[in-house]
Amino acid sequence: SHYLGEETGRSVPFSKRNIKNRSFLFALQVTAGETKEIYLRVENHICIFPLYIGDMKSIDEKQYPEDTLYGIFYGISFIIAFYALFLFIAARELYYFYFFLQVIFFSLYVLIYTGEASQIFPAFTLPVIDYGTVIMSIGVIFVYLFFNAVLNSKKKMPVASGVFLVSAFITAIAVVLYFAGFRPVATEINMVISTIVFLTAIILYFYLKREKIIRLIFIGFAIGFVILIFWILMLQNLILYTPFVDNLFMVQDMWWMIIFSVALGLNINNYIKEKYKAQKESLAYLEQNEKLIL
Questions:
Q1: Do 221 and 252 touch, CB atoms closer than 8 A?
Q2: What is the pLDDT of residue 47?
Q3: What integer pLDDT is reported at residue 275 of this predicted model?
Q4: For helices 183-207 and 132-154, what crossing angle results, to 10°?
Q5: pLDDT confidence of 292, banded at 50, 70, 90?
Q6: What is the b/e burial string over 24-41, where b = at least 16 CB atoms within 10 angstroms of the residue's CB?
Q7: Which residue, of 57, 92, 112, 229, is most buried by count of CB atoms within 10 Å of its CB?
Q8: Residue 14, CB half-sphere, CA atoms under 13 Å: how many?
Q9: Can you spell out the DSSP letters for 235-263?
Q10: Rounded to whole angstroms, how far apart are CA atoms 225 and 199?
Q11: What are the φ and ψ backbone dihedral angles of 55, each rounded to 5 degrees?
């Protein structure tokens, strides 16, 4: 028997793929009524690889709705990332910069997860694609630092701040463990820590009744986390794969970006109002002093 071998993957550049597509496609030389043996070897730390057989027209039709969603996601990410960077430059508040970084790292992860990175990234950077989980974890670290910075800007709560800072530190340790080859341990650590942060966000939402902006951020995070749970369960093979569940990470990421940017927009609006009020009071005070002098 004669067998033909072909290899592909996220780190294989488009120039070396027989079929130029973000998915992993193989040309099957099978005619109607013919029987052939095809062996598929899959190497991945996440056991998800839905299989489809069809012609390019049917594959393009299947990918079209997803490509539309991806385009919307990348557009929103681009706008919000530069919006956050602009707010940081204008206000010099660190939480705007943390928000910018989390948007960047989550967008990079989506590029890797959807297979778009192999088409966009230069060939010499493609080995980074094998560490998509690390890139996502770094984005999560900046989420925790973002929460801590926002909380400290409004209210001093050492215990809550400690939770966020320790969570960021332990997540960084999990990244090191991932590089060291302890991937299951790193995954378990990330799940435990993210659950603790989720519960902390719920508690702060009900506790900080007068801090509307912070409450919006934390409830937005909590809702996004619940959405994300279904995607995580799919990755662990605990629920069935569907295209809808497969794209839930992107949906919740867009949810977080929109909610967080709305909250930060309200925050900068309040900052402008407070600054205007302070200037007005200062001007009134100067006018009163002038009258006293005269």
A1: no
A2: 55
A3: 66
A4: 20
A5: low
A6: bbeeeeeeeeeeeeeeee
A7: 112
A8: 12
A9: HTTSS---HHHHTHHHHHHHHHHHHHHHH
A10: 10
A11: -85, 170
Rg of the chain, C-alpha, whole Å: 24
Give the tens place of pLDDT for each residue, 137-166.
999 999 999 999 999 887 788 999 999 999
Q: What is the pTM of this model?
A: 0.85
Task: Please identify which residue in the block is written with the tokens 């557009």.
Answer: 75
Distance (Å, rounded) from C-alpha 113 to C-alpha 249? 10
Identify whether the C-beta of residue 135 lies closer than 8 Å to the C-beta of residue 108. yes
- Amino acid residing at 275: K
Q: How many Å apart are CA 292 and CA 294, to the nearest integer?
A: 5
255: which residues sit within 8 A by CB, 6+ positions away?
A: 220, 223, 224, 227
Distance CA 205, CA 201 (A): 6
Alpha carbon distance 208, 82 (integer Å): 29
Largest separation between any pair of C-alpha atoms in the chain: 108
Task: Give residue 240's pLDDT.
Answer: 85
pLDDT of 145 reads: 96
